[in-house]
Design a protein that fits this description.
This protein is mainly β and 283 residues long. It has one domain (6-27, 93-270). The chain contains five helices and nine strands, in the order H-H-H-E-E-E-E-E-E-E-H-E-E-H. It has helices at 19-24, 51-54, 62-65, 231-234, 263-270; strands at residues 81-82, 85-86, 105-107, 113-115, 119-124, 178-182, 202-204, 244-249, 254-258.
């Protein structure tokens, strides 16, 4: 593991700074958007958007965040109009890696063209299948994708629904725990729903970095090498960078992790409470 040169670091590096700690200790839950007091059914008042919606004020996009109504019972957040446009249509340069081969939008499964992101929250070494080689490696992340919202069964710092970790729950230390990393919408079906969507920005360490599931690329289209259905493989971190991908850790630092990273070490970085003392990031 090594730090990446400044020019190649996360384009949206504002997300990596101390504002994350402020946001995640605030009253508002920064999980993928389902109100803790509600069921898992995606009712309009529950669909509060992805963790990236929660981060809008901290990347200087109050122009969008301030126009949202989080108590509305008629629309999901993604469909609310801000400045005359639906929130899902806003392409944010802060969320796009310039090395990826897209224009900031993808066609979603509902037929809408949606703005996407190249950064996704880490659910850690979570139970996610098929095709993940190290799903639930630590043994306690038994809930599929962390759907139940319980800290006890969520490996990483942000669950699929309901859960986002408080700093006190990151017992491995913020410098040894992944917060989010690079992803490619070309390689994962959920990401094409857009950066706003509640069912898009959650990614795990259960498969190798840059494991090829990218639609249309050589060697893909069947088995585990598919962008849809092979969730344990497709919902892994990926980039167009040669040899690895860029990650933010919970202390605000940024690191480049190689494709050849030891998979057990990778699980330790993904999990927030595995207890390993030998997890280090080269400076």
């Amino acid at each position: 593991m090594q730090q990446q040169p400044q020019a190649a670091r996360l384009r949206g590096s504002q997300l990596c700074r101390c504002e994350w700690q402020t946001a995640f200790q605030s009253q508002r839950d920064c999980s993928t958007g389902i109100d803790k007091s509600q069921s898992l059914g995606l009712q309009p008042t529950e669909a509060q958007g992805s963790f990236l919606v929660c981060m809008l004020p901290f990347i200087e996009r109050n122009d969008l965040y301030g126009g949202l109504n989080f108590t509305a019972n008629t629309q999901d957040i993604e469909n609310q109009l801000v400045g005359g446009n639906a929130l899902y249509a806003y392409v944010l340069k802060e969320l796009i890696c310039p090395t990826d081969d897209h224009n900031g939008t993808f066609l979603a499964d509902n037929g809408q063209t949606r703005a996407v992101a190249n950064y996704s929250a880490s659910i850690g070494s979570q139970n996610n299948s098929p095709c993940g080689t190290h799903a639930n490696y630590c043994g306690w992340a038994t809930e599929i994708r962390g759907d139940n919202g319980l800290a006890a069964t969520t490996s990483g710092v942000i669950g699929h629904r309901l859960y986002s970790a408080k700093l006190r729950e990151i017992t491995d230390g913020t410098s040894k725990t992944l917060l989010f990393g690079e992803v490619r919408p070309k390689c994962e079906w959920h990401l094409r729903k857009g950066w706003v969507h509640v069912n898009a920005s959650y990614t795990g360490t259960q498969s190798a970095i840059n494991f090829n599931t990218c639609e249309g690329e050589p060697g893909t289209g069947s088995g585990c090498n598919t962008f849809s259905g092979s969730w344990g493989a497709s919902q892994g971190f990926k980039s167009k960078h040669s040899g690895g991908a860029t990650f933010a850790l919970c202390d605000g630092s940024v690191a480049f992790l190689a494709e050849q990273i030891d998979m057990v070490l990778y699980q330790a970085l993904g999990d927030r409470r595995d207890g390993r003392a030998d997890v280090t990031i080269q400076q």
